[in-house]
Amino acid sequence: MRHFRVVPALALTLAVSVLGVACGSSSATSSKTPLIVGSIAATSGSAAPLGSSQQSGTALAVSELANGSIDLRTYDEMSDVQAGATAMKKAISDGAHVVLGPTLSSAAAVADPFAQAAGVPVLGVTNATLDMAAIGNLIWRVSLSENAMVSASVKYAASKKSVKNAVLIWEPADGYSTGSAESFRSAAKANGITITSEQKYVEGATSVGSISAAASSGSPDAIFLALRSAPAGDFLVATAASGAVRVGGNGFNSAAVVKSSGAAADGLIVSGSWNINTSNANSKKFVDSYTKANNAVPDAFAAQGYAAIQVLLAALKKAKTASSADIQVALSKIGTVETVLGPFAFDAQNEPSYPAAVQIVQGEAFTLAS
């Protein structure tokens, strides 16, 4: 079993950031006791490209906006379900009033019940396939759900690319993939698309090449890719010559995945909670500051991490104290908050209400679909 650990490099970065906040100006102030936020992200392991972006976005928001009102403590989920649960227990024992993450929905499904039992609210920064309602009322989603994102992508493929039939590739051993696959099935049915076959990828037992060849053999209009980020790039390369419209789940919404597959990713349709070309002033400012701070452009996971802090600061302004109980009440009363994701609000089911950004990959970049 893997063990919990704090990310030393990121912890040092955050220490410097918090020091900078204490000495400088910020757009938000608070005289209340600092809100202790446990940020759990996969900064090592297979999901590290996603979790590292998430953590970087969160750290930037704290340094720019919190003005000492947030005590951010970071934990590495290690892309492992049990490590995620261990990190959650450690965050709670460390006194976290609220927790962000874990990155993976499968890890969150195991870890979040500990927070629910302890009375600690959780904001799912990247948990697209998590069944929040099954865990409890303390679980809130910042990212759009896989259902929302896949539905937007499949609707675009049906209306703009005339897709009538598709083959679905998914991983039965992976929790995210099984949830994404169900989202594709529902979206296909809603848009009059027939899934003619399903190809199941089992790491170590089947090959990317054989699964991709089987999916392409019937010349389908589309190939639906409900896969985690680790094999995503390989599948983009293997299906590039198929001629089919390729639609990916949120596992493909990663700059690292697109870069690893190069030109083979061109034409991929994938929706996200955010796109770098999103036309709101909040987002444009975020892109500039993130790029300067990290010497790299942000992706959707970084934007979601940043937005989570914006949402928490809005709740903190309405809360009587920084206690978990008061933050939980305040989250239900934040109304509409201007964030990098756009105008953000929670519905009665703790789900966010903002439209998905439908994207098409071109030249290793996520371009907004027209």
Detailed description of the structure:
Helices cover 45% and strands 18% of the residues. The strands form four sheets. Strands 2-1-3-4-5 form a five-stranded parallel β-sheet, with helices on both faces. Strands 7-6-8-9 form a four-stranded parallel β-sheet, with helices on both faces. A three-stranded antiparallel β-sheet has the order 10-13-14. It has helices spanning 8-23, 48-66, 81-93, 105-118, 132-135, 146-160, 175-190, 208-216, 229-239, 255-261, 281-294, 300-318, 324-331, and strands at residues 35-41, 70-76, 98-100, 122-124, 139-141, 165-170, 194-200, 222-226, 245-248, 269-272, 337-339, 342-344, 357-362, 365-368. By secondary structure, the protein is an alpha/beta fold. The protein is globular, with a radius of gyration of 20 Å. It folds into two domains: 8-144 and 279-354, 3-Layer(aba) Sandwich (Rossmann fold), CATH 3.40.50.2300; 146-272, Rossmann fold (3-Layer(aba) Sandwich). Helix 6 packs across helix 7 (175-190). Residues 37-352 form the Leucine-binding protein domain. Pfam families: Peripla_BP_6. Keywords: Signal.
